[in-house]
Structure formats: structure tokens, C-alpha cells
Amino acid sequence: MLYTQDRTQQRQFLANAWQKFLNKQTLDPLETQLTQVIEIHPEYHKLISKIEFDYFPEQGEVNPYLHINLHLSLREQLSINQPLDIKKIYQKILTRTKDPHETEHRMMDCIAQMIFSAQKDNMPIDHQSYIHCLQNQSY
After folding, report:
1. In this predicted structure, what is the pLDDT of residue 2?
2. Which of 14, 42, 50, 130 has its Cβ near the most Cβ atoms within 10 Å?
3. Low-confidence residues in the chain, pLDDT < 70
4. Whole-number Cα distances in Å, 87 to 22, 27, 93, 101, 110
């Protein structure tokens, strides 16, 4: 259900997974991944159930749903090592930061830049720019 264009359905799925986690109910694998990310973001714990809220980056607000989905996207990329050698880049950044969560955030910044640029320019995603950004994070 998470993979839908409907924002409300996506948010509801995430909120339901978090509630199941809090109730100690059995989670499916995707729900487990989601709740692992939510767990490391205590600042989102109370926001997850407020699926109707809007978040405005231009006002300094972070969209917790987008943030959680960026974590999931990166973790999926790492699990299949796509783009090629992303695991090596992750390890290089981790060696510098010494913090897996900080490493993910640095890499997620590159994903966000790639998506923002594609949307702003109405162009396909530029994978080369993404790799370049990731490589810059590792130095």
C-alpha cells in the first residue's frame, strides 16, 4: 500500500504501521522497516498520526513523511547496491561520520537534491549528478 501516488493513503499506511508497533502487534516487513526509521526520529513520534498536516520547507519545516521515505529509498538502494557501488560510498561516509544515521542523512540530501532538480527543471532524474553528490559526501 505504501507505493501509491495518493498522499493520504501513504501517510495513513505509515501512521497505521506506527500504531501497530506501539500496540506491539505483528508487523509485515515493510512496516518493520518504516517503524525502525520512525523509532530513530523521536521528533516525529507525535506527528505521524497527524496525516492531514502540511509541511512547508520554505518555512523551515521538515516533512516527516518525506524524510522517512527518503530513509527507505536509501536503504533500498543499499540493499541492492544500486546505483552500483553505493554500498562503498556509504562505507566511506560512515568512516568519516562514525554514525550510521548521520551517514544516511548526508546521502539522503543527495537524493532530495536529485528529486528537487528533476522536478524544478521538469527533466528526468540525473543519476550522474546523484552519484557525483554522493561521492562529494565521502570526502
Report:
1. 56
2. 14
3. 1-4
4. 32, 27, 10, 15, 15
Rounded to 10°, the helix 86-97/100-121 angle is 130
Burial class (CB in 10 A: 0-12, 13-18, 19+), 134: buried
pLDDT in the model for residue 42 = 96
Rounded CA-CA distance 51/48 in Å is 7
> Which pLDDT score, from 0 to 100, does residue 59 have?
79
Length of the chain equals 139
Which pLDDT score, from 0 to 100, does residue 58 have?
77
With a CB cutoff of 8 Å and minimum separation 6, the contacts of 53 are 47
pTM: 0.89
Domain ranges of the chain: 1-57, 81-139
496525516: which residue's cell? 51
C-alpha cell at 55: 509541511
Q: Tell me the three state secondary structure of residue 64.
A: helix
